[in-house]
């Protein structure tokens, strides 16, 4: 009874503070956001290294981690559909100290991940500018300049709030649907061109137990199949969060599994196992399936541009989530943020930190991580 009373008091308190937030996110937005955030472009390359047994490993990863995670998120969000998501759940269950640590760790994760997204964007953009311009990424100025500019654009969009940001995130989700839809369809195009003799997307081989396979399996389970919990951070800005987030998770779960499985099958069918590009397997498979002559030479740049749209939407989403933690911690009187009001200052602070982390030399970054700063 005491725990139920504490939970009820917490819900009433947070809902009262969330009253000023605009409820911008609908079911359609939430589904697209989750597909954009969860279905990364590099995981199908890692999974393809497993060969035909990738189907078994994807299913095992879904059963052991993905589906339980989805069930937990649905359950907790129905109990406490509150702005802050994991922070609120951990605070009610384990107290403010551990709740604060959960929020702080997710905030720190965002600070480290956003510069990584920016570097990937700079690398992909260099191939759009000129397929032979790989030298750009080796210059001193190119990657830091593009990275800082990219983070600045994402921050500028995020400052405007979800009223603007959700459209970019929706565009990112649609872009990822188009990219993966093209990836799933390209083996059939290759068959029509005579470049591929036959294609069996669900061909299954018995998995073998090795350190490499266990390593890849852990990446699929804990890396590719993670992210459902992040959408609950903005529950206070969703319309009917108790229903809409649960329904969005239920809809997005099979979509993400199918895109991963069939996308991996396409990569495996079109690219020799030893030549799979673990960084950009999707453009590689599309070029291999469509060829490089005539209009098909435009496929890779078009796909990379769509991936850039997805990456920009993803970055605004992660940045938005990171900026909510100081807000909800401030409601509890914690010193995550000096001001308990949510506004441009938190976005600017996050922008400054991510830019600083990006322009630091690699050696200094490693030294700071080793010191725990």
Compact overview of the structure:
The protein is an all-alpha fold and 373 residues long. The protein contains 14 helices and no strands. The chain is globular and about 65 Å long.
Topology, pairings included?
Blueprint: H1 2-17, H2 27-38, H3 43-48, H4 54-79, H5 86-94, H6 96-129, H7 142-159, H8 162-193, H9 211-224, H10 241-270, H11 281-290, H12 299-331, H13 344-359, H14 362-371
List keywords for this structure.
single chain, 373 residues, mainly alpha, Amino acid/polyamine transporter I, 14 helices, globular
In words, what does this structure look like?
The protein has about 375 residues and is an all-alpha fold. The chain contains 14 helices and no strands. It starts with a helix and ends with a helix. The relative contact order is 0.20.
Q: Give the helix/strand class.
A: mainly alpha
In total, the number of strands is 0
Enumerate how many helices there are, as a single number: 14
Taking the alpha carbons of the first and last residues, their distance comes to 41 Å
Q: Going by CATH, what is the homologous superfamily?
A: Amino acid/polyamine transporter I
Q: How many structural domains?
A: 1
Q: What is the global morphology?
A: globular
Regions with pLDDT < 50 over 5+ consecutive residues?
336-345, 357-373
Question: How would you sum up the major sheet?
Answer: none
What gyration radius follows from the Cα positions, in whole Å? 21 Å
Helix proportion: over 70%
Mean pLDDT across every amino acid position: 80
Strand content: under 5%
Which fold does the CATH topology refer to?
Answer: Amino acid/polyamine transporter I
CATH architecture, by name, is Up-down Bundle
CATH first level: Mainly Alpha
Q: What is the string of SSEs from the N terminus onward?
A: HHHHHHHHHHHHHH
